[in-house]
Amino acid sequence: MSATESVMIRLVLGSRNKKKLKEMVALLGYLPLDLTDLTPYPDAPEVEETADTFVGNAALKATQLAPVLGAWVIGEDSGLCVPALGGAPGVYSARYAGTHGDDQANNDKLLREMAHLGGADRAAYYVSTAVLADPTGKVIASVEGRCHGAIVEERRGAGGFGYDPLFLVPEYGKTFGELPPEVKQQMSHRAKAFAELRPVMERLVKGELS
Fold it and tell me: Which residues form the active site (predicted)?
C-alpha cells in the first residue's frame, strides 16, 4: 500500500435490524466508511438492554460490542413516547406487547391503550439516541434526535417499520407509513440524531479521532 492510500474504516451498527442499517447507510453513506451491521459477526454477543433510558441502552451496545469486534461501533436505541401514557412505550417500544420486534402486536397494544384518548392526548414523539464508541469501547460521542407527531386511530400506510403506520407527521398530514422513505430520512428522529453525529464521523474519516 502506498503512502497515499488508506484503509477504509469499518463502522458497525450494533444491531441486526436491516431497516435501521438501510437508514444509516442513507444518512452516512456519503462518507468513505465501510458501513455494516452485526451480520458479518455471527458470534457477536447479544447485549441486554437493561438500562432505563435510551442513551443508557445505546451506550451498553456501543461499549460492549466495540472491544469484542475490534471496530468502531454505533449503539442506537430508539422508541416511541406518548406523554399521556406516562412516556410509554418508551425504552420498551420494541417489546411493548411482550415479544421483541413484533410490530403488529406492539401496534395493536398501543391502539388499545390509547382507545380512550383524543385530541392533544394523542400527541407522541419518537426518540433516537446514538452512541459512538472506538474499538477499545471508549465513548466518543452521544447524540439524540426527536420527531414530534401524533398517534392516529388506525394503521395508515405500509412503509417504514415499528410504529410508523400509526405515527402522524403534522407537516404532511400523513403517517411515516404513508410517506416515501426519502421524506422520512430527512426529518425522522434517527435522521436528526445522525445529523448531530455527522461532524464527528467526518473527523473520523479524516483520521482526527483515531
Answer: 77 (proton acceptor)
